[in-house]
Amino acid sequence: MSTLANRPTTVLQFIKHYWQFSIAALTLVIVSILQFTPLASAGLFAMDAVSIGLALPLVYRMWIDIKSGKYGIDILAATAIISAALLNQPWAAIIVVIMLTGGEALEDYAGRRAQSELRALLDRAPITARLVKNDKIEEVKIEDIAVGDVLEIRPGDTVPVDAKIIEGTTSVDESSLTGESLPQLKNIGDSILSGSIVVDGLIRVSAIHTGEDSQYQQIIKLVRQAAETPSPFVRMADRYSVPFTIVAYAIAIAVWVISGDPIRFLEVIVVATPCPLILAAPIAIISGMSRASRYGIIVKTGAALEKLASIQTIAFDKTGTLTHGTPVVDQVIVLGDYDESTILHHAASIEQVSNHVLANAITKEATSRNIELVRAEDVKELAGNGMSAVVSELTVLVGNYKFMESNTVTIPTDFDQNVISQTATYIAINNNLAGVISFKDELRKESKATLKAIRGLGIRHILMLSGDNEAAAAAIANQLNIKEYQSHLLPEDKLKIVREVTTQPVAFVGDGVNDAPVLTAATVGIALGAKGSTAASESADLVIMNDDLSYVAKAINIAKETLSIARQSIFIGIALSIGLMLIFATGKFSPVAGALIQELVDVVVIFNALRAHTDKKFII
Prior knowledge:
Among the domains are: 146-209, Calcium-transporting ATPase, cytoplasmic transduction domain A; 293-324 and 444-558, HAD superfamily/HAD-like (Rossmann fold, 3-Layer(aba) Sandwich), CATH 3.40.50; 325-442, Calcium-transporting ATPase, cytoplasmic domain N. The protein is 49% helix and 19% strand. The chain has 23 helices and 22 strands.
């Protein structure tokens, strides 16, 4: 089947691409015309020769498969063509050839239809950008953009590289990246992803990645890999080939022996040709992959989709996957005569100049409470420990407990540091411990519903693996009703656990660089929110572009429905073929009629397989 970048668009390209089908069809037309001339007999002889000639590559491929221990179903097609030619049934022979080679064309058409979303993604890839330099705008190639370059983006433009808005306000369409259907409002300071489309408003942005490292190019890389990597599952029908072939030959030989007429053998074999079995699986798989891409779920191979449909265990990383991965203030513990507002006022006034993740959490909490901040003076920072400054003429220390001890801060006699089980920041005012701010990693709002949906899909064994402390891991596990979880894990620990899971196959869902090894080791690795780690995206079998955990359940549902339709299509093909074999065993229908009817079976199977491209109702 042709790839996204290699598909016929003109008549000449079609003939070149499908040369076997073109020769067979042209032969049929020419011989049909010659039937009304003295050259009719020569035409029929030529038709036999063409049929056998086109069947030879099939016979060769069949022979190679048999030598390597593979027993596919091409043997039935080769038998039908050669038998028809030897039994002086040239019309049946050429029609079978057309059916087989035309089946490839139908498969290619169906595949291209199913890949429409993937193709659209590639077609929208930006090539140039407007660079602002010395107050002038010049058009440059994407590959020439450097980090920090200022670009101008106008309504209707595709964002060329990952960037941060420095001028203007806009709404952007991220549907092709994340599956989010509604435009997202973006203001100064917000990041925008390459590949998203500016809906309104002219903006200027500063590039935060080069073109090669930007989101859209990463997606295109994944899509090309998904489109061009052959899947072992496209020959799913080979699992059924041996019994199907035995049944077909048994019926055909029995009819021949009973009737004594070799034509009866041909009549059965013609309707046993394997196109429905060959076409069903690849079309369904491609359709399912395309359907997934509409939601920003990039499935790298058809084999990954097959494996995902059969998983028995799913393991989740905690931080950044089941939770947001960004700490927020949980409690403000007050000591002495202070109140929460005073503690937050002094702490946030210092922390507002820091980029530390806990400093950002404190500043956001103070802002959300409308606490006015002041400028801190004489700010000093000891990396990894804390900060000191003068706030409203008071000496304030903000940092960890060790930082307090090293500065000989006075600790109340009734204060027990061990009762603070969570991550915490300590605040001292005029060298007296005044309060403690504890933090929590907030659960994603969709986590509970997602796990419920996953359990509803038949996956009962759910694990949580965390590098966090026991208390933090237990709190999240309890909220999600996860019975099996482990804490204090290093990447190699997660790797070992996934490999030793007894209920296989297992999927692992993670989002960070440290998840890359276990994403590779799992039967199916799922990288969540590809706005994050490139390493995780490259290691995973599935990449979910939208930073939304519910898409994991959606991906599993799509995989299960796709595999169900693929198998159903194969069984429909087998049932129809066996039914036709029994009907044609009566000898009441000609081999030509059988060849024509079998083509209708192909169409039925193809259109049934294409149902994998259609969305079904699935609520999380």
